[in-house]
Amino acid sequence: MAARPVATGYGDRDIWRIALPMIIASVTTPLLGLVDTAVVGHLDQPQYLGAVAAGATLFSVLFMGLNFLRMGTTGITAQAFGAGDGDGARHALGQALVVALLLATLLIAARGWIIELALAALDPGAAVAGLAREYFAVRIWSAPATLAGFVLIGWLIGMQDARGPLAMTLATNLVNIVLDIWFVHGLGLQVRGVALASLLAEFTGLATGLACVAARLARHPGRWRITQLVHPDGYRRFAGLNADLLLRTLALMFVLAFITAQGARLGDLVLAANAVLLNFQYFSSYALDGIAHAAEALAGKAIGAGDRAALARMVRRALRWTLLLAGGFTLAWMLFGTGIIALLTSIDAVRATAGAYLPWLVLLPLVSAWSFLYDGVFIGATWSRAMRQVMLGAALLVFLPAWLLARPLGNHALWLAFTLFMAARGIGMGLWYRRLAGGNDTVRRHMP
């Protein structure tokens, strides 16, 4: 059942109605890792901490690579919302859930190969490897809830609802924290307890998300078309979109892994200092992503409504807020960066080394802000091919050459290359945005 396209709601209040809950949800997520670390860090053997760290890293890589499920769902759903297409919104949800559950089934079926390949790459000691297998064997069963949760979050954002994802995140994190403490210190389940807490927390988040989705569906009439969900042709656009997003994500993961690997080659001190400094970038990116999520929802709505003027107006306003927030982080890192480093590590040599490279982190929020905002716009507009091309170009034609040319500078070369990589992403996407969104009929031509 189709209604009239949505033509209003692109102002500052609309941006922050979505951005603020998403910022809160994003910045609470790292707290979960701190709790996991604190819970097992007080056990009597260090291998418990190593096993949880190894297992959590493996799942972070797996799920980060599959996060295209959220991004692809947001854009398609937001466009259906903008067009007033209740049937299309339901199709986007059902289609993405089918794909998520199929991928989760593949992960579970291949769980033996996955853990052995991961342990071969990480090469931990025998005690840590055994405990990591125990952690993985439990937590892998959370894959259906985690991947379906990605879909529900993406769908809710596309439907202009940020409170649902916030409720899902808070429910997941709170349950995980409580069960962590109970299972590990109350029941003595150690590493298995940490994994079991994560498993049950993910299904709690899924249940919360399903309740939010049901409430949203009740407010937007439409019909489910089962024939579209079972016919392979209906997945062609979804598959192409998500293939582009997967390649884009893999390129980003390559850059981050390269920084870690090259930092390790420069010595343990540089590796530790870079790990401390990356927390600055991650924290600012979590916050800036909140505005990018708003841009996803509103850009998709504008595309669905065929409203080029609304798209341009929203991008200008969202970019202004993104730059203001990024400027705040730059000022904070400039004034308090040294103190934050001191809070993150008590080792004087690591503090001094991190302080030497802190100016790069002071600069990065303002350099990165553009790419974060345009990521949101392109996801909402489903311009995935352009996202893929820009990310691959920035990684292969800017990041790697910059590092090779500046390599004699040591760790400064890594941070210079990363800064230029983020700048290239912002410039490239900005230029591509002007091409894709320009002209009287361009927005409609790029509608699916």
Write up this protein.
Helix 3 packs across helix 11 (236-265) and helix 6 (126-139) packs parallel to helix 9. By secondary structure, this protein is an all-alpha fold. The chain is globular, with a radius of gyration of 22 Å. It has helices spanning 12-41, 46-65, 68-82, 86-109, 111-122, 126-139, 143-158, 163-186, 190-219, 226-230, 236-265, 268-305, 308-344, 348-381, 384-406, 411-437, 442-445. The chain is built from 17 helices and no strands. The chain has two domains: 1-230, no CATH class; 235-448, no CATH class. The longest helix has 38 residues, at 268-305.
Structure described in brief:
This protein is mostly helical. It has helices at residues 12-41, 46-65, 68-82, 86-109, 111-122, 126-139, 143-158, 163-186, 190-219, 226-230, 236-265, 268-305, 308-344, 348-381, 384-406, 411-437, 442-445.
Question: What is the 3D shape?
Answer: globular
In sequence order, what are the helices and strands, one letter per element?
HHHHHHHHHHHHHHHHH
Tell me the total number of β-strands: 0
Number of domains: 2
Structural class: mainly alpha
State the helicity in percent bands. over 70%
Terminal residue distance: 18 Å
- Please describe the biggest sheet, giving its number of strands, its sense, and whether it closes into a barrel: none
Uncertain parts: 1-7, 440-448
Strand percentage: under 5%
Radius of gyration: 22 Å
Number of helices in the DSSP assignment:
17
Mean pLDDT: 86
Features:
448 residues; mainly alpha; disordered N terminus; disordered C terminus
Chart the SSEs and their pairings.
Blueprint: H1 12-41, H2 46-65, H3 68-82, H4 86-109, H5 111-122, H6 126-139, H7 143-158, H8 163-186, H9 190-219, H10 226-230, H11 236-265, H12 268-305, H13 308-344, H14 348-381, H15 384-406, H16 411-437, H17 442-445
Helix pairs in contact: 1-2, 1-8, 1-12, 2-6, 2-9, 3-4, 3-7, 3-11, 3-12, 3-14, 4-7, 6-9, 7-9, 8-9, 11-12, 11-15, 11-16, 12-13, 12-14, 13-14, 14-16, 15-16
